[in-house]
Amino acid sequence: MEIIPVDVESNETEKDVRLIPFTVQSFEEKVDFIPPGVEMIDAPDSWELGWRGDGVVIAVLDTGVEKEHPDLRDRIIDGRNFTHDGEADDYQDFNGHGTHVAGTIAASSNGDGITGVAPNAKLLILKVLDAQGTGYYSWITEAVKYATKWTGPNGEKVRIISMSLGGPAKVNELRDAIIEATKNNIAVVCAAGNEGDDDDTSFEYSYPSGYNEVISVSAATPDLKIAPFSNNNEEVDIIAPGVDVLSTWPGKTYARISGTSMATPHIAGALALLLQFAESEEGFNRKMTEAEMYALLVERTVALGYKKSSEGHGFVRLTFMNRVRDLLSYVEQNF
Known about the structure:
Blueprint: E1 16-19, E2 23-28, H1 36-40, H2 43-48, E3 57-62, E4 76-81, H3 97-106, E5 122-127, E6 134-136, H4 137-149, E7 158-163, E8 165-166, H5 172-183, E9 187-191, E10 215-220, E11 236-241, E12 245-249, E13 253-258, H6 260-278, H7 290-298, E14 301-302, H8 308-311, E15 315-316, H9 320-334
Parallel strand pairs: 3-5, 3-7, 4-5, 7-9, 9-10, 10-11
Antiparallel strand pairs: 1-6, 1-8, 2-13, 12-13, 14-15
């Protein structure tokens, strides 16, 4: 099923923004394994090292979430609705997209269902798109500001913002809000967009992913090729699994979906794992800046051989360099 969002009323200051169109391959009532995309970026190896996203709060700006999904209900720390769908405290997902994104980031490792990239992280659910997957840039802007200022019940602060959405317009107010978030040591991760024409010589831009201040994520196939729908442009930073991605879906079920929207939460979750490590005694034992978080991520990428405008720095492999260093150490000691 391909979701084609309808337009909302717009004017000179309220440009329409929407879900990046995506394709649902299949629905599944019950699963019990780690999704392939989570495996591909070495998340399970990171868990064995003790990195599971503990203490990290990720703001998910999307269509909301199914609050009672068994894989998600223990991960939600708070939420707010910025749309006209219900009251401000009602962030229930009537579309499905937000629930899918949330599962890839942080579905609990509870012995059933799926496990997300950062299964111990907490999610701040900010509903900025309605049941049709559409909304106003002003909703997104206010949600980014809210995430930047939010404080949890135990003093928690948002460290990562995930946005799998986009539109054609550059909006200064939104960019200013994103810049303020990065100044507050928050990494902002955005889907590059699905308007690609499978031609790496032509560029396609979507916003907010087109802003230099965000981490723009393109999509890879399971065999590590560029997904043909993935946008190419000079702001692409990184590539992650984005085809046939299995994650949570309303009705306490699961779905396989393709899109750069599905690649983005892999990176948001990966950053949570890296942040937990970097700010621990084992790492730097201090708070990381947004620039340092980006550097930690880039250091854990492997080039796929495509243009930078397609894959950025490369495909995320969280523990790949650990294995390289172990191999080099072994060679030095034995040969």
